[in-house]
Amino acid sequence: MSRFARSPITAVLGPTNTGKTHLAVERMAGHASGMIGFPLRLLAREVYDRVVKMKGSDAEVALITGEEKICPPKARWFLCTAESMPLEREVAFVGLDEAQLGADPERGHVFTDRLLRARGFAETMILGSDSLKPMLKALVPDAEVIGRPRFSTLSYAGAKKLSRLPRRSAIVAFSAEEVYAVAEALRRLRGGAAVVMGALSPRTRNAQVAMFQAGEVDYLVATDAIGMGLNMDVHHVAFASLTKFDGRRQRRLTVAEMAQIAGRAGRHQRDGTFGALHEDGPNAFTPEEVLAIEAHRVPPLEKLFWRQGEPDFASVEALIASLEAKPTSEVLRAAPEAIDLSVLKRLSEEDWVRQRVRSPAMVRRLWAACGLPDFRKLGAEPHSRFVGRLFGHLSEGRGHVPHQWFADEIQRLDNMGGDVETLAGRIAAARSWAYIAHRADWLEDPVHWAERTRAVEEKLSDALHASLTQRFVDKRTTVLLRQIGADASNLPVTIGPEGEVSVEEHALGTLTGFRFTVAPEARAADKRMLLAAAEKRLGKEYRRRGQALIDAEDGAISLTGSVLTWSGVGVATLEPGPNIARPRIRLDRSLDVLEPQAKTAVQARLDRWFAEQIGKRLTVLGKLDEVTRDPQAGSPLRALANALLEAGGLLPRRAAAHLVEALDPPARQRLRRIGVTIGTLDIFAPALLKPAAAAWRRELLALADAPRDGAAVLPRTAPGADLVHGYRPLGAQAVRVDLVERIARAAHDSRKGRKPFAPDPALATSMGLTAETLGRLMAQLGFRTARGPEGEPQRWIWQGLVAPPKPKAPPRDNAFAVLAELKHG
Questions:
Q1: What range defines the domain where residue 328 resides?
Q2: Is 285 found in the same domain as 324?
Q3: Does pLDDT of 513 surpass 80?
Q4: Which residues contact 705 (CB under 8 A, 6 or more apart)?
Q5: Do the beta carbons of residue 663 and residue 640 sit within 8 Å?
Q6: What is the per-residue pLDDT for 503?
Q7: Is residue 639 a part of any domain in this protein?
Q8: Whole-angstrom Cα distance, residue 340 to residue 665?
Q9: Which of 350-364, 499-513, 533-547 has the lowest mean pLDDT?
């Protein structure tokens, strides 16, 4: 198997939305076996579902969390919570997600232990924030640290009240009470919100997120659980407060915590924003915090919490002593007493417990019982009583939990009545019993009880979802225009020449393209019925418009930014695909009114239109895309083509110097035939600099500033005067890259070896270059000034380009490894 990095231990660090988790999953899937530890049960489940889809079956994929175990006998890939990673298994790949949580007082010792001990025999990958870097240098010096830049921009949007939040916003609060209060306010102000909290079951959470993703509600209220990699289409993150209770005190969020949560705004290459609900006071961002979050600068960690990962089970005393042992490294700090250790200490004081733990095996069993999480958040004393009763059964007779006790407790929880808080409490209790049921040695029939517990939790989850929706989403349907009648199917809907939709003399709204907009004067309670009335009676018009779009001439379709428009109406959006020449074209949600067959035909028409436009307007990019899919092209050429596509057809040569050096003559000839110039300073396609092609390229790259059409030289402060637009900045001016190459060739044609020479100044003068600009350019081209007779043109001497540091050559048959070296080497 090809190597991703030079070291078997790789640390991939960076802010949110950098694709770290996606990279780890891809790396794991490339090995014969693997395991990844995640910070959340919800995230482990999400990735498990993704890996099952990748592998095509769950026969070899396992999910292991405290409350859920899907572990086929021949499982080779394991998706786990960090606490549940089966470290005794030997696997080729091991990954640890959000490793900076080693600094968390409550769970940090678990992540630190995995950081130190969890290893794959072929590859180990540690994922986390940039703040983890000094800890890695101290604790895992052999790890190769690779940085990952964020795919999109994260910017501060200021403080906005709930009533003014943009659509697709997530509001983050730090207690269940605050979450419910915000969701209730959004129901009144904006029609409703989905709710996501770490304590929800995956089923409830997925149902709530599906409601948000489908556009049934435009707002999501969540705890900071969304900061841990859960994938949702959020454009803006608003903080309801900037303080939280961490188990001991109420404190302000750290910059790292703020950045982790704010970073959920924006997805892949779509930019995101963040802000607060308060303009001033303790719940408003300071300017320093804003700058740090936007720049992804987080303070480096100075310590991680540690606890012995392999404690001594010789006796209870030895177990407690090993768990309270002090770390030897100066960057490690003894973890605060966790609830499992607190429960162990309490139980060890009981005479009956001490009488039963006289062997290492029984000490180990006691510690396993103490590991039962306090899902109900009862506190150490009540929780220790529950654990004590559990251990009492585990330490007597056959060592199994009594069938009747388990059955009675599950039966008590099998009750779908009650409000949101009551149902959430039952789910928390059910999680305790699910945890017990998944310990195969604690029950006589664990498979039966695991299934029974899962069924109850699913029923409670469905009830909680229904209760959340009823409480926080406005489902009222009022009689539409009472004087007309309530049966929407009988309403005589008509469409005017400007798209105005009406029922008899009553205006419903306007039909623009395929989107029906309710008349603004309609009361909020009437809007859903208005929509239903229109959609039931507008089917014929939708079909007619759909066919017109399918039959549309090329000129009727255009690209504006990332939106494909037909007759001036947005019908689809470009989303990131394999590369800039092959984006994904997602139909606008308004086209959901079409029948599936018509939608498929519209999708095909737009795909065909875009491919034809690439072929006509950006031919070079289309040909580069063909290279990336040509197995005969060779790894360096495919990697260079990918890099050029990622940069929109223009790349500084230094950024790909080792790839250029690796190109053989046929590869160089193929690039020339495509229309790519390997220049002295830049690799570019001259055809992309022409005004029409440059305009399309700007649309595809979402570039805001446009340089003046046909300009050879621009003032440095002018719009578009930078490399991404095809202009190389040189002091007070920026010169188009193809003209930079003309000057470079003219200079080399004029020089004679390394003797001083004076190039013809006419070329630079005709372009409008100042003497200062020409001097800077000549220096970048590898020339230095030489003394000459006074009053004569400036003379130059060739000294050669300074070569960039040459990275270690990756395997030549692995384009992914070549790209990795290009980005991170």
A1: 304-442
A2: no
A3: yes
A4: 719, 720, 725
A5: yes
A6: 63
A7: no
A8: 66
A9: 499-513
